[in-house]
Amino acid sequence: MKVFNTLSGKKEEFLPRGDEVRMYVCGVTPYDDAHIGHAMSYIIFDVVRRYLQFRGYKVKYVQNVTDIDDKLIDRSNQGGVPIRELAERYTRRYFEDMEALNVAPADIYPRATEEIPKIVEVIQGLVDNGYAYPAGGSAYFRVRNASDYGKLAHRSLDSMIAGEGATGSEEKEDPMDFVLWKAAKPGEPSWPSPWGKGRPGWHIECSAMSLKYLGDTLDIHGGGQDLIFPHHENEIAQSESFTGKKPFVKYWLHNGLVQLGEEKMSKSLGNLITIRETLEKFSPDAIRIFVLGSHYRSPLTYSEEIIRAAEKGAERLTGAVQSAGNGERGKSPLEAASYRQRFIEAMDDDFNTAQALAVLFNLAREINRLRDENRNVSAGQQLLAELSGVLGLTLKPPERSALDVKPFIQLWESIDRQLTDAAPEQLSDDIVINLIRDRFKGITLDSAEAYVRLLISIREQARQAKEWLFADKIRKGLEELGITLEDTPRGTIWKYKR
Predict the structure, then answer these.
(1) How far is residue 334's CA from residue 377's CA, in Å, rounded to a whole number?
(2) Which letter, b or e, does each residue of 309-334 get, where b requires 16 or more Cβ atoms within 10 Å of its Cβ?
(3) Which range among 83-87, 392-396, 450-454 shows the weakest confidence by mean pLDDT?
(4) Beta 132-135 vs 138-141: how paired, if at all?
(5) Is the peptide bond before 16 cis (omega within 30 degrees of 0)?
(6) Rounded to whole angstroms, how far apart are CA atoms 97 and 108?
(7) Which of 54, 352, 356, 493 is most buried, judging by how many CB atoms fall within 10 Å of its CB?
């Protein structure tokens, strides 16, 4: 199994340091709803974790919540909402979004405001060993004391721009130095420290939390490519300086970014599309297939057309798993082992989910072919469900319980009236005999699904009687209500368009 390590700039064999893979992924700053860019990153690292577990590894997964930050303070001031209340609201909504996307919860979600003692401890250690210094109630990291600063971004120190807090501060010894502790400002939340009341800088939060919950060296640290510099570069500098140059992370994994046209999707640019907005139009499986259909290190361009295509792909996989087969008993003719091996080979190559998805679609196609031949497909269906689960796909039919039965009753009544009032010359004798029968008169059903099945049965009899216009009327009527029909060798399959 090989992964691309941003630190080395190449694929490396994956060999964790111990029995448990220690994995840290930078979390959200909860001042607004999470967007599709967040969905991309957390779906990807959810799959990384799921695949490692599928391959037999134990994984301890930590994801932080930055619940104190300049953006939170600004939004709090704009809306007149206390910072804690704002952070709690959007943290809760973030968890709801992740659950809707079938992203498994991290093992630990440390919050910056609850980790102040550890953060102060790390900063004090850096001050004590000369890597940091207090100034004006704040504390700063001496970048030039970290001789290998820039190794993650593969840039020399002289070529870099200053990071957070690097502009316009007369307190700093060097413009490249970055803030570890921010002196308190009037009206802002603050905590006591040896350098005065204040709050932590962004970079030190992740170092302190990962060191506390995962130890001095992590196996995997993940995040978006926009975090490589300065955030992750600064994490390395301060963490390794604190631990006496112990390697902070063995494998750095960074996902590409979601774009709208030529621009990155982000809250700061105001061009975001939220997860909630997308889930109103598309299923969670469709969003996952949209994300996983490209390699995780590649940029992803948001397009509803592409997600609609992913929705159809999700329906194909779901149909292959869910549809009952009446195949002959006995051993399945499907070579399940070969599909499993191809899936593993794809995922072992730096989590190539696009190729892994291709394996699943090929497997679904083979399941459908064998089922059409009345062959046993149970082994293939079990494998498809298992491997889809590794990618976090649920392959559940869309929820139909919310379908309002009234429009379907009205459609049935219009069809029933046409049948009842039809003159002999309007319909053939066969269809009159088959359709206008007592069993269809005065029918009362209690669900939209029951009416859909009834209308499909009427349509099938119309097709058998070659009453094509009448059959098409039923199909179009159902389409107007969001129901699409697909005629297959196994009969007509209906799907509800979200």
Answers:
(1) 7
(2) ebbebbbebbbbbebebebeeeebeb
(3) 450-454
(4) antiparallel
(5) no
(6) 17
(7) 356
Give just the sign of the alpha carbon dihedral 267, 270, 273, 275.
Answer: positive
Alpha-carbon dihedral of residues 397, 48, 63, 106, nearest 10 degrees?
Answer: 50
Around Cβ 464, how many Cβ atoms within 10 Å? 12
- Are 489 and 372 spatial neighbours (Cβ–Cβ below 8 Å)? yes
Domains and CATH numbers, the chain: 2-276 (3.40.50.620), 314-390 (1.20.120.640), 405-496 (no CATH)
**Does 312 score more than 80 pLDDT?**
yes
Whether 462 shows a pLDDT value over 90: the answer reads no
Contacts of 424 (CB under 8 A, 6+ apart): 432
pTM of the model: 0.82
